[in-house]
Design goal:
The protein is of the alpha+beta class. It is built from 16 helices and eight strands. The strands form two sheets. Strands 1-5-3-8-7 form a five-stranded mixed beta sheet, covered by helices on one side. A three-stranded antiparallel beta sheet has the order 4-2-6. Strand 7 and strand 8 form a beta hairpin.
């Protein structure tokens, strides 16, 4: 599955309406088709089958279908209300950026689809019931009414399961697990384990020119194949200067291009065409997504941790748990090649340079705000130290040691300036020295 397909799938997955809308369409079609089947097989079914079908008259069938339709639209309204309340709670209590996680919940999609489909099916079948005074021979679609009854029973079970699911999903541990999984999936797409080592990036020459953004919003994704094709077609080298998740402003440069062969500048009309093609290959939107944005999951986790450390909530335990998730994600990348992506042509020549975050950038994103707002709590400070220790153990190539030492120095400065009792301060400083010895065995303590 290419990234363009992934982007469209993500757009559908994070909206509440596509699955219920599809279910209603199918239900209406079945509500029209099944009564026709009923009229075809009327009186021809074996007794062993007929005994399980609806056996009432037209008035009883109408009463059953009306009761099903009326009750299900009420239950659907209740389900929508509970979903909206959950979204509001997640936004105010945890982070507005978690709303995508809830709106992408397949169980919620399936429950709403079941309720609306049962309502639409019962309402459609109701049209085909004919009584004595209808001017036609009486007709009761026994199979259709039985199916509607089954959908109603399934909806009752679905409501109970939905309430249980909602209770579980609103817990912060469940939300963090969901964000963790989504972030791991993004990392596996952007930084796969077999990603080759990227060579040095080419530098723009004197004949380079900047490409302005054609629209404002967050950079959601870029079409790698389209960018490479554009660079080859215009005999140029492209470098996108903004990472996925960055904010673009229309008219502000976000990419650089220069001729592949020095001394053969790109003509002005070709520059305009190249700029249009580059903008066409870049997707922007007004909210970040996890399609190519590895940092988005880290941002979600950090936001919840910072909110938990605020005086209004004062929940350092949640922050400690989130640091554990951040540590697991960073350790997953410790043995992988991160940083910019180089796209090459058939001759192995680098034609496109795409900016992607290095592990040191993600480490800074994961630690900085949590340290700033939570280092005054000894539990949070010690968990940050554990994160550094864990990452040092996973860093088998020793490439992260300077960044980890920088984080230890920053944490030491924060602990020194915070309002700790002196015994607590000395204990934390000793812990920092012990972790420093793990990060760099010859480090001074």
């Amino acid at each position: 599955m290419n990234r363009q397909t992934i982007r469209w799938a993500d757009a559908v997955r994070t909206r509440l309406w596509p699955v219920p809308a599809l279910a209603v369409s199918v239900a209406v079609a079945l509500g029209i088709a099944l009564p026709s089947l009923d009229s075809t097989v009327d009186g021809q079914l074996p007794e062993g089958v007929s005994v399980f079908l609806f056996s009432g008259g037209p008035e009883a069938a109408r009463a059953v279908l009306q009761a099903i339709a009326g009750s299900l639209i009420t239950v659907t309204s209740l389900t929508f209300s509970l979903t909206v309340v959950t979204l509001q709670l997640a936004s105010s209590q945890f982070s507005p950026r978690l709303l995508r996680t809830f709106s992408a919940d397949r169980f919620v999609h399936g429950t709403l689809a079941l309720f609306l489909a049962a309502f639409a099916f019962a309402l459609t079948v109701l049209r085909s019931v004919r009584g004595e005074n209808s001017g036609h021979s009486p007709f009761v679609p026994e199979i259709s009414v039985t199916v509607a009854f089954g959908l109603a029973i399934a909806s009752v079970i679905g409501l109970v399961l939905f309430l249980a699911h909602l209770t579980r999903e609103i817990r912060v541990e469940t939300m963090m697990r969901t964000v963790n999984k989504e972030t791991r999936d993004t990392m596996d797409r952007v930084f796969p384990p077999d990603r080759p080592t990227q060579g040095p990036a080419p530098s723009p020459g004197a004949q380079s020119f900047r490409i302005q953004a054609g629209s404002s919003g967050f950079l959601i994704s870029y079409d790698e194949d389209a960018l490479l094709h554009t660079a080859i077609e215009h005999d140029a080298v492209l470098r996108v200067d903004r990472e996925p998740g960055s904010s673009l402003v229309q008219g502000v440069p976000f990419a650089t291009a220069w001729p592949l062969q020095a001394g053969t500048p790109i003509k002005s009309e070709d520059q305009e065409s190249l700029a249009r093609d580059v903008n066409a290959a870049v997707t922007t939107g007004f909210e970040r997504t996890s399609v190519q944005d590895v940092g988005f999951g880290f941002r979600q986790l950090v936001d919840v941790a910072v909110r938990a450390l605020s005086p209004g909530i004062n929940d350092p335990t949640t922050a400690v748990h989130i640091i554990g998730h951040l540590s697991a994600l960073l350790c997953r990348l410790a043995s992988r090649e991160t940083g910019p992506e180089h796209l090459t042509d058939d001759d192995g020549q680098t034609r496109v340079v795409l900016p992607l975050p290095a592990l040191t950038e993600l480490l800074d994103l994961a630690v900085t705000q949590v340290r700033h707002y939570g280092a005054a709590d000894p539990l949070v400070a010690r968990r940050l130290l554990d994160l550094v220790r864990e990452l040092a153990c996973c860093d088998t190539t020793n490439t992260l040691r300077p960044a980890l030492l920088d984080q230890l120095n920053l944490l030491r400065g924060t602990v020194t300036s915070s309002a700790y009792l002196e015994p607590e301060r000395q204990k934390l400083l000793q812990d920092i020295a012990a972790v420093s010895a793990v990060v760099r065995p010859d480090a001074e303590t």
